[in-house]
Amino acid sequence: MIVWLNGTHGAGKTTTSALVQQLIPDSRVFDAEKVGETLMDITPGLPETDNFQHWPPWRPLVVETARRVLDYAGGTLVMPMTVLVEKYWREISSGLAQHAIPVRHFVLHADQDTLRGRIEGDTVMGPSAFRLAYLEPYAEAARTWLHKEAEVIDTTDLTPPQAARQVAESLGS
Fold it and tell me: What are the pLDDT digits (tens) for 68-116?
């Protein structure tokens, strides 16, 4: 099974995924961003883009990597990854479905002011124009399709351990 934690930057995906992994027996965290980083390391580089998700190989490579890891190790993969383009989510989710891999899709949500404050106050990564630029695309995806496709957990007033517990409880863990 895959537990996909979606949401924009500042929603708490990375922190929550590590905590969810601790609550679900036989689970591992797989950050699909590492697939994008591998593609970014190709030299000479792939066509320029502002987001590696736009490269057509990224989506099937995420599916194939997740499938191979599950085939090898079994259990559950907890995947913290923002996907705001509906077409990309459909590609990934249908690719996983073709391999009979169940996906529980969660969106960690917070209001815009909270997200902005978390990004601007991030003491690890620092303030980031890149991360701030995704606030409006996230809001648009949430309004149009994303919140209909997932279980939404509002993290505005939750600590990461509380959000992780909500995910685990929803899974019956």
Answer: 999 999 999 999 999 999 999 999 999 999 999 999 999 999 999 999 9
124 neighbors 23 (Cβ within 8 angstroms): no
Sign of CA dihedral 52, 54, 57, 63: positive
Answer for the pair 101, 66: CB distance below 8 angstroms, yes or no.
yes
Among 104, 64, 58, which residue's Cα sits nearest to residue 85?
Answer: 58
CB of 83 closer than 8 Å to CB of 6: yes
- Assess whether the previous peptide bond of 44 is cis (omega < 30° from 0): yes
- For the stretch 135-144, what's the b/e string if a residue is b when 16 or more beta carbons lie within 10 angstroms of its beta carbon? beebbebbee
Q: Which pLDDT value is given to residue 73?
A: 98
The reported pLDDT for the residue numbered 123 is 85
pTM, rounded to two decimals = 0.95
- Which position has the token pair 């902005």? 116
User: Beta 151-154 vs 103-109: how paired, if at all?
Assistant: parallel
Residue 74, SS3?
A: coil
